[in-house]
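quick one before i forget lol
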Amino acid sequence: MQPSLLFPDQPDLTPEIPPTWAEDSDVYHTSDRCNRLQAIQRNRRVTGKPGVKLRLCFNCEDIIRAKRLG
């Protein structure tokens, strides 16, 4: 996955997984370690390119930043 697609202003942040969200959510997830993503039942998860504007989960962003900083 090209990091520039999700983080155009921060090209060194690379998502761990493709964007994933719940059917009725306005937030997408990019880390499989996110506890908010884990709370979504697998049969209610949607993965891919969202058709509507969603915002990145703050937990996922923190996980990816921590991974980058080591």
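fyi The chain has a mean pLDDT of 84.
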